[in-house]
Amino acid sequence: MTTYEDFRDDLKNVKERLSMMDDGYWLKISDLHEESDPNYGKYPQIIIRGLDDPPKFKDNLNRRPVYNVEDDCYVSIYDKKDRNRVQYKHMVYQIPNQEKDLTIQKALREQLNMEKKSLKSIINLFGEIIEELIDN
Length: 136
Known about the structure:
Structural class: alpha+beta
Largest sheet: 5 strands, antiparallel
Mean pLDDT: 84
Order of helices and strands: HEHEEEEH
Shape: flat
Low-confidence stretches: none
Number of helices: 3
Radius of gyration: 19 Å
Distance between the termini: 15 Å
Helix content: 40-55%
């Protein structure tokens, strides 16, 4: 039987997917310590936040946004404790866009819009189920 915690976790996953589609995410593109030791992994690969909300860590780290020529947004994080340097790049949700046919490009955009609408419905449904579980 599905528990309250299961529903809560599923709802969190669906909300994160929708947020990723709407606002994008920060992708780790370099980590000096992880490159030398693949088991290091102190910083997450993906942080689901919008462009205006760059990654933050509680270890009193120094971070600064850097914009390259194409206006892509990067954030460099310098860990003062272990002298690690990590870099994240903000990404928009990736959909296949290699098609030159404008009709197919439009179809892909509409499919994404429909998927987002479905996820919003699922979020509402899970919210109602969780409320029902709490009330009973």
